[in-house]
């Protein structure tokens, strides 16, 4: 049974991934969290909780050694800790290889899955893919400011392939369940529904185009990648994970219709806010390689037809 440690495993993506790995029946799942209060829920879900902050290198190292972890998956929001996590994982991987060498033995590399996002492509004028350069002069556009550090971190992860079996997955915007990120657009819809009013103000440009993917489909993409970490991901283990691309205008129109709001909509721009800027890209990403290399197919591709269900799930989770 491969032993998989999920950093940030209590989050939107982490929870879906942990459940998906467990349901597959052939994994032992360890979930890292900063919050001791989440310990009980993790145990109740048949997983092992490991409570430590992501910046605690000694605790991460100890977790990898104590439980002989085979694969580490970073699905955390610990952006500040990304480098220190990678350093620790590589250091453990090197120590394992040295220990094997002392025994004259060969063994598998430690697995490392890093979660990036399609925001590294920015708002390219032309169609891009996971084969397109990001974060340098060769790229079609610059990454969203909030994730401008990410392309170089992706490069740092890829540079460790002598020691790690690694893959980088770049999901589009996640929807489904408590998809917290939809709050920027559905928050104003919910407020207008509750209090009434004439106009819906959305903090984005009207030209915003969103690459969407259901959280369960992202979890299945991660699982497919984890299952193939042992050398079956080809020369370029980087995958954009997108199911469909929809204009924000259609998303808002579909949502207001689904909840029975008759209102005009003002797209008021992002006002220089870096989070809103990241949410308000004009995405233009094709994601066919993950289908051919990993055999992944998203099961949800009808976001607009079911937007009422997703909105209701989001609202109920608030
Ligand atoms: N959501 C999306 O649409 C989307 C799209 C593309 C890429 N991604 C990437 O996927 C990863 C996971 O996203 P997510 O939406 O699942 O995130 P999330 O729900 O916010 O969960 C991430 C988890 O990270 C942990 N964490 C560690 N340090 C943190 C910090 N400084 N601030 C906040 N949380 C921290 C938290 O767990 P504890 O509190 O239990 O420690 C949290 O539950 C991120 O790297 C994100 O950039 C997300």
TrEMBL record:
<dbReference type="Pfam" id="PF01370">
    <property type="entry name" value="Epimerase"/>
</dbReference>
<keyword id="KW-0732">Signal</keyword>
<feature type="domain" description="NAD-dependent epimerase/dehydratase">
    <location>
        <begin position="4"/>
        <end position="230"/>
    </location>
</feature>
<dbReference type="InterPro" id="IPR036291">
    <property type="entry name" value="NAD(P)-bd_dom_sf"/>
</dbReference>
<dbReference type="InterPro" id="IPR001509">
    <property type="entry name" value="Epimerase_deHydtase"/>
</dbReference>
<dbReference type="InterPro" id="IPR051783">
    <property type="entry name" value="NAD(P)-dependent_oxidoreduct"/>
</dbReference>
<dbReference type="GO" id="GO:0004029">
    <property type="term" value="F:aldehyde dehydrogenase (NAD+) activity"/>
</dbReference>
<dbReference type="GO" id="GO:0005737">
    <property type="term" value="C:cytoplasm"/>
</dbReference>
<feature type="signal peptide">
    <location>
        <begin position="1"/>
        <end position="18"/>
    </location>
</feature>
<protein>
    <submittedName>
        <fullName>NAD dependent epimerase/dehydratase family protein</fullName>
    </submittedName>
</protein>
């Amino acid at each position: 049974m491969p032993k998989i440690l999920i950093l940030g495993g209590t989050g939107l993506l982490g929870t879906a991934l942990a459940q998906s790995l467990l349901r597959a029946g052939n994994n032992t799942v360890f979930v890292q969290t900063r919050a001791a209060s989440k310990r009980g829920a993790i145990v109740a879900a048949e997983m092992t909780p490991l409570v430590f902050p992501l910046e605690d290198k000694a605790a991460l190292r100890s977790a990898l050694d104590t439980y002989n972890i085979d694969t580490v998956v970073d699905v955390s929001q610990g952006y500040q800790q990304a480098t220190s996590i990678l350093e620790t994982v590589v250091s453990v991987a090197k120590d394992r290889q040295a220990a094997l060498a002392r025994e004259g033995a060969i063994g598998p590399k430690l697995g490392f899955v890093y979660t990036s996002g399609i925001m590294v492509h920015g708002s390219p004028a032309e169609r891009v893919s996971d084969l397109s350069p990001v974060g340098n002069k060769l790229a079609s556009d610059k990454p969203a400011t909030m994730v401008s550090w990410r392309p170089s971190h992706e490069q740092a992860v890829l540079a460790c392939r002598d020691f790690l079996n690694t893959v980088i997955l770049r999901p589009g915007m996640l929807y489904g369940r408590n998809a917290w990120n939809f709050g920027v657009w559905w928050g104003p819809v919910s407020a207008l529904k509750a209090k009434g009013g004439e106009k819906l103000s959305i903090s984005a440009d009207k030209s915003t185009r969103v690459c969407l993917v259901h959280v369960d489909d992202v979890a299945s993409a991660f699982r497919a990648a984890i299952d193939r970490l042992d050398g079956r991901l080809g020369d370029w283990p980087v995958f954009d994970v997108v199911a469909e691309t929809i204009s924000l205008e259609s998303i808002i129109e579909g949502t207001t219709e689904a909840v029975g709001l008759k209102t005009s909509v003002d797209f008021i721009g992002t006002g220089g806010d870096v989070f809103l800027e990241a949410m308000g890209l004009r995405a233009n990403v094709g994601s066919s390689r993950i289908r051919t290399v990993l055999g992944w197919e998203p099961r949800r591709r009808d976001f607009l037809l079911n937007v009422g269900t997703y909105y209701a799930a989001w609202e109920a989770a608030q």
